[in-house]
Amino acid sequence: MTVETTRRSFLKFLPLAAVFASIGGAAFRFLRPKLSAATDAWLDVASVSELTGPQPVSRKIVAEQITGWAITTEEHNVFVLPAKNNQVVSAICPHEGCEVAWEQNTNRFSCPCHESYFAADGSRISGPARRGLDALPARVQDGKLQVQYISKEQATRA
Amino acid sequence: MRSPDDIRSWLQTTTGAVVVLLAVQFLTGVLLAFYYVPSVDHAYTTVSYIEKVVSSGSWVRSLHHYGSQWLSVFVFIHVIRLFWDGAYASKRIQWIAAILLLGLVMAAGGTGYSLPWDARAFFSTRVAEGLMAGLPFAGGMARLWLLGSSEISPVTLSRFFALHVLVIPALIGAVVVWRLFRSQMAEFFGPRDAIVGTLVFLALALWALKHPAPLGPPVAEAGADYLPRPGAQFLWLYQSLKYIPGGLGSIVGVVLPGIVLAVLIALPWLKRQRLIAGSLLGLGVVLVVVMTTASYLSDRRDPRTAQQFARQTAAEEAWRHQPFNPATITLTAATTPASGGAPVLYTKFCASCHGTQGQGAQQGPLKFPPLLDVPSKPRRSVDDIVALLKDPTAYGLQPPMRSFSTKLTEEQMREIAEWIVKLKR
User: Fold this and answer.
1) ipTM of this complex > 0.85?
2) Are B14 and B33 a contacting pair, CB within 8 Å?
3) What average pLDDT does this structure show over B255-279?
């Protein structure tokens, strides 16, 4: 085959390539991720009256999120810090997003994944995390401590 | 000037249409799999999501839906063209590959129709079930193997899904690769194939833009008057089944097509090839054309049917304009929502005996009283309940009800008591 005929047959395939480019374009739009929408509802954490003593208190909040084709109701761990005027922090480690646990004997939060440690007021002690545990927006309404959920994406953002 | 040879070589380009349509089916199928979930509680929701929310989703699904029907037609034309050329004698591999492809493409269409799990899908699965059950000798067994169970169930949908997206595409891929390895690329897919393929795709793309793929109501919401129809490539079978009594439908729908495909595959080794293939394909064309036309005509002529279809079309159109209705997924251990439900400490200390919502419970011989409407009873105010939690015997209660004075603070007891007095039967 000469160069000329090769080019001519290549040109004949061009419309086909253009056609499949249209599927490619649709594929990009089709697969483009959609951000999930967390509700900004205020969620009950605890009665203020039951928050006594210096130890962080583990609580669960149940938050709704619209993700893709479903409304997902998911439980999230938070800690109330009586030592810090009942601030509520997310249990999600700001390093890579594992869940920290409170260690009573050493009086600190520890992350099971990469050994980040946090003090009873949520501030960073040591480890790969670059900052302390994230505080959730909180308020007290009718004697109840309430928070707004923040997503993992927000919580682990640098 | 067009020479007869020139026209003849344009007629050779059915391969181009088939290859392009196969590529469209693969690409759009992969895209749909990014959102589709093969489970009876989420299939319909995910397909609706593709239709209503995902960008270009309706177009991609319509390409896949109508592409499967066009593909069946073009593979059939391809087979007839190969027959015309006498490929069963001169190009055996092309011939066998084309027949295998015809069977596989029909199987893909049949299994794919069940996946959206709308009313049409459900009836289509029912018909597939009936066709299997009516098979001679092994009917009962064939039905069980198709459904994976004794009834159409979540297992059935998984089976159709696995066949549709894994087994059948793998077999189609194997046939195409086999065919490709045994031929020169230029002979397999030349520039003229590219042009024909492009035109076929353009036509399909425009058609799909104008016509979204149908989606019936969810199975649970379909009324008794819902009229399902199969995909266009199965209308001949659908119409034929109207004329055939009972179990004989399986003969026409499964056994005869199976025998015809087997004979056509074996054709290169048979005698009187042209007579056998000519009469089988000729009968096939006549059956498909006559029955498909009859199906369209009978749907159009009966005014009641036409009215019902108009209602269904209007309902589907209205559905398309409604906002997407998401599914609800609960990923919590808690049985009650945090707000408005039972206090956490009630759930921890009381719910195992008195029920998560105070409804009472029974464990073996032990009956635990419900806590509903307690304020209507004597000595059951909030203060009484707090006192009762501290000292149950003072209120005449017996074990296993015990004192919680070491477990709960006064405030915690009060929170529980205040929640309990609101419980209504």
Assistant:
1) no
2) no
3) 93
